[in-house]
Design goal:
TIM Barrel; binds iron/sulfur cluster; alpha/beta; binds pyridoxal-5'-phosphate
């Protein structure tokens, strides 16, 4: 008699994977076989803790403390130095924070801070000092946000942001997206997320279904800083998003020791394009306290941009911008 093997549909459970993220520095450095003498001394406990999914760690090079992915997440004592002009709230977003969970800064589009947390903690993040949890809408807040959008028919695009909006569970996302899809004046739903890069298992069939079923135009703006972040699993899931008719764009941040090199950024643009993603923005680092050691000079950033412009097709050159308090849009930085 032939015994039939049961067919098991193997699907990662992203919530379990999220829970199993590494939050302890020694554990991370053990996984990576970083030798004792290369380990950073961590005297002070950081308010912004370590958090990194194992799938992201798997893309780091063993034994290399300078690995460009490790350096984005590893807490360092140097963060505790006070550096003039680096402040806790460099973007002064408070005045655009119309309602809990809603930022209306630029014409025609609003940003909804759907969740207070992220799947990864990036050391250079301008939200590292932000009271995340206090500024998400909740159910009551959502009604007010909808009323606000309906009273401002010039708003045609809602941007789900955070934190990372894809950390929300499928049922909640479904409800939110369905609700926004019913607002007549809206054309586009945009999602700003790093999760497809750092926790690719989150792109499950249910999520694809939820996005696909909305009649709004869909755009996902990813956040990738280095080509090593794009492995086979990530690229596969980006292709599935594309097949669901979602436009994929990417933003990066200039980071010292990670991507302050024209070869690295050119390779990132090419790899993104092969995965169906167009480079959108490259940001100058926001001057948030704790991130000064990631800053590169404006001179160097501009010379890298000139090199990219001279060596890439125009559609693979991201727009070099910075965030300026009070400006009507992100501010382009000229470099030629
Ligand atoms: C970046 C940003 C947007 C979107 O700007 P685009 O230039 O359209 O990408 C909207 N609202 C806020 C608060 C932002 O920071
Ligand atoms: S908001 Fe984006 S950059 Fe900041 S910690 Fe979260 S994932 Fe990283």
């Amino acid at each position: 008699m032939i015994v039939q093997m049961p067919k098991i549909k193997y699907e990662y459970n992203w919530e379990a994977e999220l829970k199993n993220s590494i939050q302890n520095i020694d554990e991370l450095l053990n996984i990576l076989n970083i030798e004792e003498q290369h380990r950073p001394v961590n005297t002070a406990k950081q308010a912004f803790t370590l958090r990194v999914p194992q799938s992201y760690i798997a893309r780091m090079e063993k034994g290399n403390i300078n690995d460009p992915l490790l350096q984005q997440v590893l807490p360092q004592d140097i963060e505790l130095l006070q550096v003039p002009s680096f402040t806790p709230d460099p973007l002064q977003e408070k005045k655009y924070n119309i309602l809990p969970g809603l930022l209306h800064k630029y014409y025609g589009r609003v940003l909804v801070m759907l969740s207070g947390s992220c799947a990864i903690h990036c050391r250079y993040c301008f939200r590292r000092n932000f009271p995340y949890e206090e500024n998400t809408p909740g159910n009551k807040g959502l009604e007010k946000i909808i009323a606000y959008i309906e009273q401002h028919p010039e708003i045609t695009e809602v941007i789900l942001s955070g934190g990372d909006p894809l950390i929300a569970k499928d049922a909640y996302l479904n409800k939110i997206i369905e609700t926004f899809s019913q607002i007549k004046s809206l054309i586009t739903l945009r999602i700003h997320t790093r999760i497809p890069i750092v926790l690719p298992s989150r792109i499950n069939d249910t999520l694809l279904q939820i996005l696909h079923s909305s009649a709004l135009k869909k755009v996902i703006v990813l956040h990738t800083n280095h080509p090593n972040e794009l492995n086979t699993e990530v690229i596969h899931n980006l292709q599935r998003l594309q097949q669901a008719n979602i436009t994929l764009l990417n933003q990066s941040v200039f980071l010292k020791g990670i991507n302050d090199c024209s070869q690295v950024l050119a390779a990132l643009s090419h790899k993104l394009f092969q995965a169906g993603v167009l480079p959108y923005y490259i940001h100058r680092l926001d001057k948030v306290s704790g991130a000064a050691h990631f800053a590169i000079s404006e001179y160097k950033a501009k010379s890298i941009m000139r090199h990219l412009l001279a060596h890439l097709p125009g559609y693979l050159v991201p727009k070099f911008v910075q965030e300026s308090p009070g400006a009507l849009s992100k501010t382009p930085i000229t470099y030629v």
